[in-house]
Amino acid sequence: MIQMKNVYKKYPNGIVALNGLNVEIEQGEFVYIVGPSGAGKSTFIKMMYREERPSSGQMFVDDIDIATLKNRKVPMLRRQIGVVFQDFKLLTKLNVYENVAFALEVIEEKPEAIKKRVMEVLDLVGLKHKAKMFPDELSGGEQQRVSIARSIVNMPKVMIADEPTGNLDPETAWDIMNLFERINKAGTTVIMATHNQHIVNTLRHRVIAIEGGLIVRDVAGGDYGYEG
C-alpha cells in the first residue's frame, strides 16, 4: 500500500527531515510512527497525502507515484486517504452532518447516497443523535469522532492519523483508539503518529521509530521504546 525507496526531504532552510528512508506498509496493517519531537514523523506523515513531496527518492501510495504526481491529481489521491488531525480541523459554520457530507459533496456524490453514507458513519462513531449540532457544541472527543467520520465516509484504503489523541483526556483517547481498531479490522490500513506510550504499549501493532530523519526501529508488535 505504501512504499518508500531511499526518500530524502530537505527543506529550503537546509533542515534535512528525512534522510534516506526505506519502508513498506502492506494493505490492512496498523502502524504506529513514534520518535522524539523534530525526528521527522510529521514530514513522514505529510508525504503520504502529498502535503509534502520527496526531495529525492521514490514514494508510492497505492501505486501512485507521490514524487511525480501532478498537483491537479492530488485531490484524486486524497479521496483514497482519510486524514485525522490532533486539532480536528472541522468547519465551524457547518453542523456535524454537513462536515461529514462535505467530503462526499466535493466529489459530486448523489444526495441520496450522501445521506445514507453519512448517517452510517455517524452511527459507527456514536454521533447519529448529534447530526444537527455544531462543532462548538461538542466536546473534544466528540469533535474528534466527527473528524474520524469525515475521514472514512468515502471508504478510503488508508487512514492517516497525526497525534489524534493528543488533545484528549485518557478515557476519551481510549474510545478513539477503539474506533481506530474497528476501522482497521474492517480492512483499512491505519498509520498513526503518536507520543502516547501507554496506547502503543497496550494495543500492540507494528512500530516504526524515526530519529534524525532515519528509521531506527521497525518492529511488529513492538513497544513505544522512549521514556517520558
TrEMBL record:
Keywords: ATP-binding, Cell cycle, Cell division, Cell membrane, Membrane, Nucleotide-binding, Transport. CDD domains: ABC_FtsE. SUPFAM superfamilies: P-loop containing nucleoside triphosphate hydrolases. GO terms for biological process: cell division. It comes from the Bacteria. Pfam families: ABC_tran (PF00005). One of its GO terms (cellular component) is plasma membrane. Residues 2-227 form the ABC transporter domain. GO terms for molecular function: ATP binding; ATP hydrolysis activity; transmembrane transporter activity. It is found in: Cell membrane. It is a peripheral membrane protein. Belongs to the ABC transporter superfamily. NCBIfam families: FtsE (TIGR02673). Part of the ABC transporter FtsEX involved in cellular division. Homodimer. Forms a membrane-associated complex with FtsX. This is Cell division ATP-binding protein FtsE. The lineage of its organism: Bacteria, Bacillati, Bacillota, Bacilli, Bacillales.
